[in-house]
Amino acid sequence: MTACFGFICGPMIDPLIYLHDRRVALRSRIVKGAWSLAAYEFVAFGIKQGWACLFGGLMLSLILLTYLFYPADAPLARYDFLTLGAVLIQIGMLVLRLETWDEAKVIFVFHIVGTVMEIFKTQIGSWVYPEESLLRIADVPLFSGYMYACVGSYIARVWRLFDFKFDRFPPLWLQAILAGLIYLNFFTHHYVFDIRIGLFITAASLYGPCIVLFKPDELHRPMPLLLGLSLVAVFIWIAENIGTFTKTWAYPGQETEWHMISLEKMGSWFLLMIISFVLVAYLHASEGKTARNTERRKDT
């Protein structure tokens, strides 16, 4: 296929092929030994992680920019602007094929899971959304569900971008039971005893022996899955602090003066993230891509 611009004609270049070729050329120039390979893979790991965080990064950018620059007298409420922006981001992710439709379905389920919990938690005062908006359910602006979708999008995309494979992957039915108990406890611990400690112990028992094999460049590298999940929880905790700093939502005690969120919330996000992880795992299992008890490759 050719493309013509003015008097210049030539073959149309697939941008993905072009970027792949540039990456290969850059790698051949930089990688000359073990140390340069390690440095190259470290940079490639960071770039892929950033690309996997695209949805979340765009949403956090919207939150920060609207906090700094959104007109107080705008006819459209800031929360409603965030909701419309989130919808456009989601549409763009699908149109540009940055997410598959199957991934979008799983992300939508986590979106609903999060929204239901938001409605409950705001009703009992766990946190509040202090600004007015039109697009909301009860006390919850609709953009909040997309914050959960950001987590689901990240897990779905990072799984695909790094070509995840697993050694000693826990049975999905056990993971599903754990995810169900986690979700239930987010509601019931307000009325009966909190089983959070037991959930942490169960999660450590299930995922502790599991190794995730991820592909930053050309070879798969091993990492304990529990470590990977914990690191993601840390970054979600940082994102939550950005959300409260910009007064997009507030926990008790933050209404008049901002302070950092307690580290306890990091544990909550670790547990909640497991729900999204299990949903994505079921997606890959249905596609025959979830490897259980995979032998470690020689190239790791």
Tell me what you see in this structure:
Helix 2 runs antiparallel to helix 6 and helix 7 packs antiparallel against helix 10. It is globular and about 55 Å long. The protein is built from ten helices and seven strands. By secondary structure, it is mainly α. The longest helix has 23 residues. The C terminus is likely disordered.
Q: What would the principal axes of the Cα set say about the shape?
A: globular
List low-confidence stretches.
Answer: 292-300
Taken in chain order, the helices and strands follow as: EEHHHHHEEHEHHEEHH
How many individual helices?
Answer: 10
List the helices and strands and how they pair.
Layout: E1 2-5, E2 8-11, H1 15-30, H2 34-52, H3 54-69, H4 78-95, H5 101-123, E3 136-137, E4 140-141, H6 143-161, E5 165-167, H7 172-188, H8 196-207, E6 211-214, E7 221-224, H9 225-245, H10 264-286
Antiparallel strand pairs: 1-2, 3-4, 5-6, 6-7
Helix pairs in contact: 2-6, 3-4, 3-6, 5-6, 5-10, 6-10, 7-8, 7-10, 9-10
Please outline what is shown here.
With 300 residues, this protein is mainly α. The chain folds into two domains: 38 residues, no CATH class; 234 residues, no CATH class. Helix content is 61%, strand content 8%.
Question: What are its keywords?
Answer:
8% strand, three-stranded antiparallel β-sheet, 300 residues, two-stranded antiparallel ribbon, 10 helices, 2 domains, disordered C terminus, mainly alpha
